[in-house]
């Protein structure tokens, strides 16, 4: 077994996209056909050297990922764009294309959801039996995942503390789901709103989305995971789901691969945008683990509920949300407030060095023009009809295929 990577010695990135029909932009459940075209049979995963494609629970979603941890983020945007282009080429033969954004704007999940149908999958069947996976919170949400390694309990504690602290303001950078059920809902991050409630039957599965303040493996498994397993056992007597990936918080420890997986991020309009926000988040997390602005003890003390309240506010209002808690701002070296969440990110960007110029340009678009949600809302205007929504999301599909930022 290879030696586990230490803090920030490798980076795993996963990007999820919707498959839609080219003419109507309706969801198109043919991820299995895409993977069959690539692999020659109905496989759940296809590897292409240091990149891979995966199926997801919903048949209209496909995931691209680094095939194991990448040593650096430089160049990854181009590699992900290559995967987008390859799949779009395959989909063209079926009258389909890929759509970015964290939620389909008019998908009707109870009638349009299709589960991955190949080989009996007891995990998918158990999830569907317990939670009914037809709702938005299971079938209509696409995200970007960042996997960051740790090699010791001490490194896990530092990384977990830093991630917990930064999670509430991540939607001010990545919110990309303002439209649901064919209307602007008023929330900037509808994906997080439905994600928060998708396991309401067993609330401990998702918790407050922010993980509890636990900083050793023994504590994590003995307190956080054990509570989830105990709660789901009456519905899952065979133990099919009682593994660490059952935890559905916005960041989860994966001790099976010695990494923490951040899952709170809405996916953006093109890979360069996703890799840009990944780089900024990772650099800020590194500064937090180095105690650049605040000490480890100060970071560790925050309860999940207090951080979760701030996360809810920012996911609803996006970058314009005012952060009024002086203790929270002090974690990042800001002594006065209130501060807009977007301005906090501008402050943080000024303290780190972005290595990739294309990432810096993308971040300037996000921080000066607003999150993708804010830009979509601006493009749609007030009370848009179906034609307007279609036009904006068709433009987003073009942004993805061309690797361009969305600028209304």
Care to describe what's here?
- There is one protein chain.
- With 408 residues, the chain is an alpha+beta fold.
- The chain has a single domain, classed as Creatine Kinase, Chain A, domain 2 (2-Layer Sandwich), CATH 3.30.590.20.
- The chain contains 17 helices and twelve strands.
- It has helices spanning 31-39, 76-92, 109-112, 122-131, 136-139, 153-166, 171-174, 190-197, 217-232, 271-289, 296-300, 304-317, 326-330, 341-349, 357-369, 372-380, 386-402; strands at 12-21, 45-48, 51-55, 61-66, 96-99, 143-149, 179-180, 183-184, 251-254, 259-266, 322-323, 339-340.
- The strands form three sheets. Strands 1, 2, 3, 4, 5, 6, 9 and 10 form an eight-stranded antiparallel β-sheet that branches.
- β9 (251-254) and β10 form a beta hairpin.
- α10 crosses α15 (357-369).
- The longest helix has 19 residues, at 271-289.
- The model has no long low-confidence stretch (mean pLDDT 95).
Keywords:
408 residues, alpha+beta, two-stranded antiparallel ribbon, 12 strands, 14% strand, globular
Unreliable residue runs: none
How many beta strands in the DSSP annotation? 12
Report the total helices.
Answer: 17
Name of the top-level CATH class: Alpha Beta
What is the typical, i.e. mean, pLDDT? 95
Radius of gyration: 20 Å
Termini separation: 49 Å
CATH architecture: 2-Layer Sandwich
Structural class: alpha+beta
The CATH topology is what? Answer: Creatine Kinase, Chain A, domain 2
Overall domain count: 1
Could you say which overall geometry the principal axes of the C-alpha atoms support? globular
Could you give the order of the helices and strands? EHEEEHEHHHEHHEEHHEEHHHEHEHHHH
């Amino acid at each position: 077994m290879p030696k586990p990577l230490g803090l920030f010695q490798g980076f795993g990135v996963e990007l999820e996209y919707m498959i839609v029909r080219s003419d109507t932009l309706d969801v198109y459940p043919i991820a299995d056909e895409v993977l069959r075209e690539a692999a020659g049979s109905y496989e759940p995963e296809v590897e292409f050297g240091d990149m891979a494609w995966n199926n997801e629970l919903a048949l209209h979603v496909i995931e691209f990922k680094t095939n194991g941890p990448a040593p650096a983020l430089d160049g990854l945007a181009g590699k992900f764009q290559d995967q987008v282009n390859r799949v779009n080429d395959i989909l063209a033969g079926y009258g389909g294309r890929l759509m970015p954004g964290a939620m389909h704007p008019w998908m009707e999940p109870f009638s349009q959801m299709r589960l991955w149908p190949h080989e009996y999958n007891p995990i998918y069947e158990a999830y569907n039996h317990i939670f009914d996976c037809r709702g938005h919170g299971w079938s209509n949400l696409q995200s970007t995942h960042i996997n960051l390694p740790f090699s010791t309990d001490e490194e896990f504690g530092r990384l977990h503390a830093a991630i917990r602290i930064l999670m509430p303001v991540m939607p001010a950078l990545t919110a990309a789901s303002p439209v649901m059920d064919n209307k602007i809902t008023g929330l900037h991050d509808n994906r997080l709103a439905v994600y928060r409630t998708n396991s309401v039957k067993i609330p401990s599965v998702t918790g407050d989305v922010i993980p509890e303040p636990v900083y050793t493996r023994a504590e994590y498994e003995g307190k956080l995971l054990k509570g989830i397993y105990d709660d789901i056992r009456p519905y899952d007597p065979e133990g099919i789901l009682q593994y660490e990936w059952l935890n559905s918080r916005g960041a989860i420890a994966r001790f099976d691969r010695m990494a923490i997986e951040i899952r709170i991020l809405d996916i953006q309009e093109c890979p360069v945008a996703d890799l840009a926000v990944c780089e900024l988040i990772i650099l800020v997390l590194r500064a937090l683990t180095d105690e650049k602005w605040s000490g480890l003890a100060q970071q560790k003390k925050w309860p999940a509920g207090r951080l979760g309240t701030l996360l809810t506010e920012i996911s609803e209002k996006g970058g314009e949300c005012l952060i009024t808690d002086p203790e929270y701002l002090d974690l990042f070296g800001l002594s006065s407030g209130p501060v807009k969440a977007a301005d906090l990110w501008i402050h943080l960007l000024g303290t780190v060095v972005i290595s990739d110029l294309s990432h810096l340009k993308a971040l300037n678009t996000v921080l000066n023009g607003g999150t993708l949600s804010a830009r979509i809302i601006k493009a749609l205007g007030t009370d848009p009809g179906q034609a307007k929504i279609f036009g904006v999301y068709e433009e987003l599909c073009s942004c993805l295929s061309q690797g361009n930022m969305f600028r209304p």
